[in-house]
Fold this sequence. Notes:
Blueprint: H1 12-50
Protein name: Type I restriction modification DNA specificity domain-containing protein
Amino acid sequence: MLKIELKFTPDVAEQQKISQLFETFDSLIFAYEQKVEYLKNLKNSFIAKMFI
């Protein structure tokens, strides 16, 4: 089993910056997931129209 040691900073301001960074990453991941879903739907639409 992999052991990961995490060190936490006692500085609240630094913790907030790290938290904001992770929130930004989450937002970006969500936006890209939505874009991928949109593009998949668009592709399927084009494929369906090819055979009409």
